Write the structure tokens for this entry.
Amino acid sequence: MKDAQYDQLIDDIFIALEDALDAQEQAFDYDSNGDIFTIIIPDGSKIVLNKQPPLQQLWMATKFNGHHFNYEEDGRWVDERTGVEFFSFLDEAVSKQAGFDVTLDLNS
């Protein structure tokens, strides 16, 4: 994939994430700063997403672990170790870290 396409795919995820977090009933905050998107959980802990342009990956770090997602030809971002799809994993990670169920509705 071309670098511009990769950048656009990640930027689209970050924009959708802003909208999804703004729509939550719970008080989630976030910080978007170029290649890094930080979700601030109500307890103050963080989940950090960042672009990895040289590898064309999307990385996620939670307080429990880190994951590297690759873009597949079918349009899904998939964890290179576990095979888990990014959007479902993100809901699980945010829910686990927040201590309550969260559905961000980012599947697009």
Notes: Helices lie at 3-22, 86-98. The beta strands are 29-33, 36-40, 46-52, 57-61, 66-71, 77-79. The radius of gyration is 13 Å.
